[in-house]
Specification:
The complex is a heterodimer of chains A (about 260) and B (about 450). Chain A folds into two domains: about 120 residues, Rossmann fold (3-Layer(aba) Sandwich), CATH 3.40.50.1860; about 120 residues, Rossmann fold (3-Layer(aba) Sandwich), CATH 3.40.50. In chain A, about 40% of the residues lie in helices and about 10% in strands. Chain A has eleven helices and seven strands. In chain A, helix 3 packs across helix 11 and helix 9 packs across helix 10. The radius of gyration of chain A is 18 Å and the shape is globular. Chain B has about 450 residues and is an all-alpha fold. Chain B folds into two domains: about 220 residues; about 150 residues, Fumarate Reductase Iron-sulfur Protein, Chain B, domain 2. In chain B, helix 2 runs antiparallel to helix 9 and helix 11 crosses helix 14. The radius of gyration of chain B is 28 Å and the shape is elongated. The chains are: A alpha/beta (about 260), B mainly alpha (about 450). Chains A and B meet through helix 2, helix 3, helix 4, helix 5 and helix 6 of A and helix 10, helix 13, helix 16, helix 17 and helix 18 of B.
Chain lengths: ~260, ~450
C-alpha cells in the first residue's frame, strides 16, 4: 500500500492534516502491522490527508522511561521532538497507547507540545462526523465481544468510553470482563515487561487476563494496544482456545465492517 | 476538686506526649525532598471533599465501604460529646450543653448514639473479617506479626470507646429518671433511653454513679490513648488522609515525572545546548532514589498515610500472579525506614554520620546520614522489576497514595546510578539507542508499506 512520508509531502510543499504515528510495534511486529494496515485502510476510506514519518520516526522512549532509563528516554524523546519541529501538521494519531501517553503527558515537559489522539478516539470522531460508515460484515455480525482496557488508555488517561462507543457501532453486545474499566487488569506487558522474562511467580499475567477474557464466553477480544494483543493472544494460545476466540484491534474490527 | 486536678494533669501529659510524637512525624516527612505544589487549587479541595471527606473510593467495595463509613462518621460526630467531656472535666460541671442547647443537644447525642451503635456492629464485623474470614489481602506475608496485631488493637480500642459512651449515657439516663440530683435532664436519647434501663435498671444509685463515671473516664482515657497510639500505628490515616489527598498528584496517572536534572545533560549530548564551562564536575551526581532522603515529602507523607488495607496489593497484577511485589509492602518499607532514620537522627547516633563528613562536634542530620543501609535492604530488585506500571495500585488506593511513584524512582537509581537492572533489557536499550526502535532489525521502518 502506498503511504506518503512527511518528507515526501514536504518536498512537494504540502503538509497533511494527520501525522500517523506508527510506533515500533506497528512498524515491525508482524501482528501489529496488520493493525497498522487496517488503520491505513480506514484513513483512506475516510479520505483523510495523512502521512507517516517513515524512517525518521523513533521509539518514543516509553519502555526506557518505565524501566528507569531516563537518559535514554529523554534522548529518544528529544530526537523525535526535533524531527517533528521540521514539519507542519494538525494532529498526531497513533495506534499505540504507550506512544499516545508519552506524547500527551510526557513530551510537553521536554518542549514537545503536540495535539495527539489515540486511534480509539479518532475512530469515534470519524464515525460521529460521518466520515466512515459501518455495516458489520459476516465475520463480526452476531458475535459477542469483550473489550480489554489497556492500562495507558484506561487508567493512565481515563479513556473508557470512546473505544466502547466505537465497538457499539458494530452492532454487537460488549460483555465486560470481571475486571474492567478503571479496575481493568494489565496484560502484563507494560513497564517494559514486554522486553524481559517474568519474575518468579505462580503464573503469567497474560494467562490470568486470558482466563478472564475466556470466562466471558465472548468470540472476540477487542483491544487497542499492540502489546496487549500479543500478550492476550499468547495467553489464549496457552489455553488452546485460539480457534474459538480471536483477539482483534479496534481498527481491524472497524476496517472489516467498512461500507 | 481532686477529679478536676487529675483530669487536667492527665490531659496535659497526654497532649504533651502527643505533641512530641506528631512533631516526630512532621520532622520525618521533612527528611524527604521538598515538593512544589502546583496545579488547580480548587481541584485539590474538590479531591479533599470527594475522596477524603466523601470517601468516594471506599465505596468501590461497598460492604467494607459502608461499615467503614459508620466508624468514620461516628468518629467525627463523637467529637461533639468529647468537647463536653473536656468542659466537664476541667470545670467539674455535668452536661452543661443540655441546658444551653435543649432539643438540639438531645438530637446531637442521639445521633452520636446511633452512629456509635452502627460503629460497634461495624467493628465486630471488621474484627471477624480480619480474624475469621480468609480475606487474602489481610494475610499477605507483610501482614504477619505487628501489622496484624496493630489492626486488631485499633478495633478493640474502638469497641472500648463505644462501650464507654453507652455506659456513661446509659447509667445517666437511669439516674435522670430517678430524679437524682446533679444529673441534668437531657431528654431521651435514641439508644440509651431503652438500652440504659435494660442494662442498668436494677442497679442502686451508687452503683449507677460508679458505672457512669467509669464509662466517662474510659471513653476519655481511650481517646487520649488513641491520640498517642496513632503515631506508632498504621492508623495515622484518620488525620493524614486529608493532607495526603490534598497534595496528591493531579496529572494523568499515565504520566511519569520528568527528571529535569537529566534534561540539560541530554541536551548537551544531542548538541542542542552548550555545556556550562563553569559547571562543577567534582561530584558525580546520583540519580533516582536509594533512600528516603531521595524521595519527596509527598512520597513520605504517602507512607505515613498508608493504613495497610491492601487494596493496592489485591489489585496488583504482579501480586495476583504470585510475584513477590506488593505495593503495600513498598509503602510499609518506606515508613519503617523513615521511622528508623528519624529515631537515629533524634538520638544523634554519631556512628551513623558518613565517614567523610565526620568532624568533631558535628551532629547527625539528613545531610550527613549514612548508616550503610538504604531502602534496597528491605525492597528487593525482584519486587521492583515485577511492576508493570499499570497504575492499578494507584487507582485502588482510597487515599491517593502512589506506590508506583516510589517504584519508578528506585528503578531509576538501579538503572542510572548503579548501571544495573535486568540484563534482559539491554538489547531493548541498545536497539532504542542505535536503531531508534525497541527491536534491532535490519528492515526499514516503513517496510510494511511496500508489501
Amino acid at each position: 500500500m502506498e503511504v506518503k512520508t512527511m518528507a515526501q509531502l514536504a518536498a512537494e510543499g504540502k503538509s497533511p492534516e494527520i501525522l500517523f504515528w506508527v510506533g515500533c510495534a506497528g512498524s515491525f511486529d508482524a501482528r501489529a502491522i496488520k493493525v497498522t494496515k487496517a488503520f491505513v485502510k480506514i484513513l483512506n476510506t475516510a479520505k483523510i490527508d495523512f502521512a507517516i514519518l517513515g524512517n525518521e520516526e523513533r521509539c518514543t522512549g516509553d519502555p526506557a522511561r518505565r524501566a528507569g532509563n531516563e537518559f535514554l528516554f529523554q534522548m529518544s524523546a528529544m530526537m523525535n521532538i526535533e524531527t517533528l519541529k521540521n514539519y507542519t501538521f494538525k494532529r498526531i494519531v497513533t495506534t499505540c497507547p504507550h506512544c499516545f501517553n508519552t506524547f500527551k503527558n510526557e513530551y510537553p515537559a521536554l518542549g514537545g507540545e503536540f495535539k495527539i489522539m489515540h486511534h480509539s478516539q479518532y475512530l469515534e470522531e470519524l464515525i460521529k462526523t460521518g466520515k466512515i460508515r459501518i455495516t458489520p460484515d459476516g465475520t463480526i455480525k452476531g458475535k459477542k465481544i469483550t473489550y480489554h482496557d489497556s492500562c495507558y488508555i484506561g487508567r493512565g488517561n481515563d479513556i473508557y468510553e470512546a473505544p466502547r462507543s466505537v465497538l457499539l457501532e458494530l452492532n454487537t453486545d460488549i460483555i465486560e470482563m470481571k475486571r474492567c474499566k478503571s479496575d481493568g487488569l494489565c496484560c502484563g506487558a507494560g513497564g517494559a515487561q514486554m522486553f524481559k522474562e517474568d519474575e518468579p511467580g505462580d503464573k503469567r499475567i497474560n494467562t490470568e487476563r486470558a482466563e478472564e477474557a475466556l470466562a466471558t464466553k465472548a468470540d472476540i477480544v477487542a483491544a487497542n494496544c499492540p502489546f496487549c494483543i500479543t500478550m492476550i493472544e499468547d495467553g489464549i494460545k496457552e489455553k488452546n482456545a485460539q480457534d474459538k476466540v480471536t483477539v482483534l484491534d479496534l481498527a481491524e474490527l472497524i476496517a472489516a465492517g467498512l461500507d | 476538686m481532686l477529679p478536676q486536678i487529675i483530669f487536667a494533669l492527665v490531659t496535659f501529659v497526654a497532649f504533651w506526649y502527643a505533641y512530641k510524637q506528631y512533631n516526630r512525624i512532621w520532622k520525618n516527612i521533612h527528611l524527604g525532598k521538598e515538593i512544589k505544589v502546583t496545579g488547580d487549587k480548587s481541584q485539590r479541595w474538590k479531591n479533599v471533599v470527594l475522596i477524603a471527606l466523601g470517601q468516594k473510593k471506599m465505596f468501590k467495595k461497598w460492604i467494607p465501604g459502608l461499615f467503614h463509613f459508620f466508624i468514620y462518621s461516628a468518629f467525627i460526630i463523637t467529637q461533639i460529646e468529647l468537647v463536653e467531656i473536656f468542659v466537664d472535666g476541667f470545670l467539674g460541671t455535668h452536661r452543661p450543653f443540655a441546658a444551653i442547647f435543649g432539643g438540639l443537644y438531645t438530637f446531637a447525642i442521639s445521633l452520636i448514639e446511633v452512629l456509635s451503635l452502627l460503629a460497634f456492629v461495624a467493628t465486630l464485623i471488621f474484627l471477624s473479617r480480619r480474624n475469621l474470614l480468609k480475606i487474602p489481602r489481610f494475610h499477605k506475608p507483610e501482614m504477619k506479626g505487628w501489622p496484624k496485631l496493630d489492626g486488631n488493637i485499633i478495633l478493640y480500642l474502638e469497641l472500648a470507646l463505644v462501650i464507654g459512651i453507652f455506659m456513661m449515657n446509659g447509667a445517666d439516663t437511669v439516674l435522670q429518671s430517678r430524679g437524682v440530683e446533679h444529673y441534668t435532664q437531657t431528654g431521651s436519647f435514641a439508644v440509651t433511653s431503652w438500652l440504659g434501663p435494660a442494662l442498668f435498671g436494677g442497679l442502686s444509685d451508687g452503683a449507677l454513679m460508679f458505672v457512669e463515671r467509669t464509662g466517662w473516664w474510659m471513653h476519655f482515657l481511650v481517646v487520649l490513648g488513641f491520640l498517642n497510639y496513632l503515631p506508632i500505628s498504621k492508623h495515622l490515616h484518620v488525620f493524614l488522609a486529608f493532607p495526603n489527598v490534598f497534595y496528591g498528584r493531579l496529572t494523568p496517572k499515565g504520566e511519569i515525572d520528568n527528571m529535569d536534572e537529566v534534561t540539560t545533560e541530554v541536551k548537551i549530548m544531542l548538541g542542542l545546548e552548550e555545556p556550562d564551562p563553569n559547571a562543577d564536575m567534582s561530584d558525580l551526581p546520583e540519580f533516582g532514589a536509594k533512600d528516603i532522603f531521595d524521595l519527596t515529602e509527598l512520597n513520605l507523607l504517602n507512607a505515613y498515610t498508608c493504613t495497610e488495607c491492601g487494596r493496592c496489593t489485591e489489585a496488583c497484577p504482579a501480586n495476583i500472579t504470585g510475584k513477590k511485589l506488593s505495593p503495600r509492602k513498598i509503602m510499609m518499607d518506606v515508613r519503617d525506614r523513615m521511622e528508623l532514620v528519624g529515631k537515629n537522627i533524634t538520638d544523634n547516633k554519631t556512628d551513623c554520620i558518613a565517614a567523610a563528613k565526620k568532624t568533631d562536634g558535628v551532629v547527625l542530620s539528613k545531610e550527613n546520614y549514612d548508616d550503610g543501609k538504604s531502602l534496597f535492604d528491605s525492597i528487593t530488585k525482584e519486587e521492583l522489576f515485577a511492576c508493570t506500571t499499570c497504575n492499578a495500585c494507584v487507582e485502588a488506593c482510597p487515599v491517593s497514595i502512589s506506590p508506583l511513584d516510589i517504584i519508578v524512582q528506585l528503578r531509576r537509581y538501579d538503572l542510572l546510578t548503579n548501571s544495573a537492572g535486568p540484563s534482559d533489557w539491554m538489547p531493548m536499550f541498545n536497539a532504542i539507542e542505535n536503531a531508534g526502535a525497541v527491536w534491532q532489525l535490519s528492515t526499514d521502518r516503513d517496510a510494511w508499506t511496500k508489501d
